[in-house]
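Protein data:
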Amino acid sequence: MTQEPAPTTTASSDISTKLEHLFQVVRNPDGSRIKQSEVVARAAAVGVEFSEGYLSHLRTGRVKSPSFKAVEGLAAAFGVDIEYFAVVEPSGGVLQDAGVERTAYRLAGLPSEDLDVINDMITAFRARRNLPPASETKN
């Protein structure tokens, strides 16, 4: 699979725009454009199952918020970093601290008791840095 370098994120948070960009720039080794069936197969090869219909809905914007697992499969299928699909704030600026989003992605799937421990640690770190409690920060 060959491709032009893809940016870490695009100017839009719209999944359909990002996917269309990838379908335009990502190429197979023979130079042909990647097909939806190939994306589905490549995602399945890394353990992420979704249908061509679901991918079509993502491309057309009918599905706006794919699961984290689906995003992992898409990133693997296109050979891009998962951060390519990072959320962009409505104001147009990328999240100020990309590490926050990356950390949130890594928390997906952990049991609630583990998340409670992590949240306690975050509270302690915020206090050490004299930051306001999370409940007082922007949601």
Q: What stands out?
A: Confidence is low (pLDDT under 50) at residues 2-12, 91-95. The CA atoms of residues 58 and 66 lie 8 Å apart.
